[in-house]
Amino acid sequence: xxxxxxxxxxxxxxxxxxxxxxxxxxxxxxxxxxxxxxxxxxxxxxxxxxxxxxxxxxxxxxxxxxxxxxxxxxxxxxxxxxxxxxxxxxxxxxxxxxxxxxxxxxxxxxxxxxxxxxxxxxxxxxxxxxxxxxxxxxxxxxxxxxxxxxxxxxxxxxxxxxxxxxxxxxxxxxxxxxxxxxxxxxxxxxxxxxxxxxxxxxxxxxxxxxxxxxxxxxxxxxxxxxxxxxxxxxxxxxxxxxxxxxxxxxxxxxxxxxxxxxxxxxxxxxxxxxxxxxxxxxxxxxxxxxxxxxxxxxxxxxxxxxxxxxxxxxxxxxxxxxxxxxxxxxxxxxxxxxxxxxxxxxxxxxxxxxxxx
Length: 357
Known about the structure:
Elements: E1 4-9, H1 12-20, E2 29-31, E3 42-43, H2 45-48, H3 58-64, E4 69-71, H4 75-92, E5 96-100, E6 103-107, H5 118-133, E7 137-142, H6 145-152, E8 160-162, H7 168-172, H8 185-193, H9 199-204, H10 207-214, H11 217-225, E9 241-253, H12 258-279, E10 282-293, E11 298-303, H13 312-321, E12 333-346, H14 347-350, H15 353-356
Parallel strand pairs: 2-4, 7-8
Antiparallel strand pairs: 1-6, 1-7, 2-3, 5-6, 9-12, 10-11, 10-12
């Protein structure tokens, strides 16, 4: 039986801004550049009361909360605070799996700090975070990662929620299926049409029908409805993908996106080279082009060449050429473009033997 803690910093970017500028405390803070093309990076809880959320267009956030104070993001400071928090995690366990700058899983089955329980570890971590950074964090404590992540959101902000093994089935039974990671709006609507609204409904639904409709995720859904999650906390997660994207100041036709694609591809390639050195030889094989239309429709095109791209020029050329696989009308305008490299593998797996010797 594992003991897992999920720590989630409260409105992290906005909280760092409020901490560093006392004039912002208690005010509706939106971390975003102003402008028609900008999106919200984070919102303080005062702004969230007006419906402002991350990834929302900044103009909409301004309409929802006219008194919002817009602050441009400063990722250097956010990363510095994140490093402080990570150091606190490592005092208690070496099994730390960061998900982003502001959240992580901790396996505290055998904590380094020798505290009596996982709950005690979570309380100590939260107290140390506040003492060191003057920032608050919420914690979820449970027997697995799935439950711990749900629990950390239960008493936000600045709260802790514990799901003990004997409470799992009763806790999950009335939980809406939309709370299960991976169940977005589309799948939620499909499940709703089948009469599946809660985890209790999922438990009794025909497993073969779930698999027929949703593939391998169908049986996985049913396992989660029972609280079964066998994933271990992985402190050494290999790189899966690297990408860069940018939103244009004005919507562009597809032909005019080439300079941005070239610049973003160069940026992604440089990041992939750093990852190659850090990982001891993992290389990416699949080149991905992402586009967002003026009406916010997202499309991606990808290509996996027989051999991984061997140079920046080759990588850029593939990314640019992927535009030829976009079949939307020429009149379509685009507000965002992104370039990514994915499908990472060890070099000896990605290359045929003849290329290694």
